[in-house]
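Usage

Read records sequentially. Each one opens with the input sequence:
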Amino acid sequence: VAACARYAEGAVQRAEAGEDEPQRAAVEYTKLFVGPPSPAAAPWETMYRGKNVTVGFGQATFEMRELLREAGLEVRNVNNQYEDHLGIELLYLSSLCARADADAADAPVPESVADFIEKHPLSWVDAFRARIAEAAPDGYFVSLAGLARALLAWHAEALRV
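and closes with the structure output:
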C-alpha cells in the first residue's frame, strides 16, 4: 500500500508538471502485458511454471479451464485470453469467495479457497512481479502487483486459521 501511495504522490507531481499520467500508464500496460513484440511480463501462469517457457498455453491453462468448467464458468472473449491469465484467476477466486459467502450447499470450504490461492496466483505472482520490476521498476504496475501478492498471501493464511 505504501508503494502504491508513493507512486500516486509522484503521479500528482508529474501531472502538475504537465505529464499525461493516464497515457503513461497505458503505455506501461502495453509494454508489460501486450507487446510488441511480446509482453515483457506475460500475465499467464503457464509462463512461470518452468524455465525458459515461451509458449503461453500449458498445464496451468488446462487446470484453470477445468476449474472454471466445474464452477459453471466459461471464458468467452474477443481477445482469446488463456484461462490461466492472472485476471481470470482473480475473477475465479472472486466467484469462489462469493459462493463461500452465500452459504450454499456447494459452497467451497475455506481450505479449498486457500489451496487455490496457493496453487495458482500466489505460486507465480512473485516471478510475475519480478518481470514487471525488471521492465518498469518505477512504474504503476510493480506496486500494484506487490499489493496483489500481499493480499493473496494474507487471505490464504487467514483462510487456514
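Summary fields computed downstream for this record:
- The chain is about 65% helix and 0% strand.
- The chain has a mean pLDDT of 92.
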